[in-house]
Amino acid sequence: MSYLAKNYNRKKISFVRGKGSYLYTASGIKYLDFVQGIAVNCLGHAHPRLVETINKQSKKLWHVSNAFQIPEGEKLAKKLCQKTFADYVIFQNSGAEATEAAIKVARRYFYSIGKPNKTRILCVKNSFHGRTLATIFASGSKKMTEGFGHVGGFRSFHFWRSQIFRKKDNQKYSCNYDRTYNG
Ligand SMILES: Cc1ncc(COP(=O)(O)O)c(C=O)c1O
Questions:
Q1: Protein residue whose Cα sits closest to atom 8 of ligand 1
Q2: Which residue has its alpha carbon closest to ligand 1 atom 7?
Q3: Model confidence, pTM
Q4: 97 C-alpha to center of ligand 1: Å?
């Protein structure tokens, strides 16, 4: 009997340790970790420098609210901006939260330029963007949304129906959210 809520259909396999891109079961079977948690553990498992850094920080300070300045966060944000296209960074706890932030940024942008009604987001049907209320409705999937009421502002289209991107139609949307997992 498991005391975990039954909101995931888990595979009957578990792992006791990881090293780099590999995972190991209790009986020592080695797997190449193609899932990476999903697609978030891009630094791999148990890298010695990361272990050392986390260990060091754990002895100093575990968490402080965003209500305060966080010099380590400033340092990481600067590095990320200098090495990428970004001007600013918002740290999020999960992919769903990052998706929610993207939805908010798109809508707020149009609000700020005097187009507050431009709120609809165009999404690929049966995609996956997380499990929050907004992101399940962004998925355009019956399986994800059944029994959860209604959250408006999303319109989905089948991936192969690209004619939906006609210029006239595009003017109605604040953004196209097009990351998808089919299959
Ligand atoms: C494309 C995409 N968006 C959002 C998410 C949600 O991420 P999280 O489970 O961290 O909320 C995932 C997770 O698999 C994802 O693959």
A1: 95
A2: 95
A3: 0.80
A4: 9
> pLDDT tens digits for 109-164?
999 999 999 999 999 999 999 999 999 999 999 999 999 999 999 999 888 776 65
CATH of segment(s) 1-51:
3.90.1150.10
Q: What span, in angstroms and rounded, lies between the C-alpha atoms of 125 and 176?
A: 12
Q: How many helices (H) and strands (E) does the chain have?
A: 7, 6
Tell me how far apart the alpha carbons of residues 163 and 179 are, in angstroms, rounded to a whole number: 18
Q: Are 72 and 49 in contact (CB under 8 A)?
A: no
Q: Output the CA–CA distances (angstroms, integers) from residue 129 to 46, 100, 148, in the order listed.
A: 27, 9, 16
Segment 23-57, tens digit of pLDDT: 999 999 999 999 998 888 889 999 999 999 999 99
Take residue 128 and report the two structure tokens written for it: 């996956």
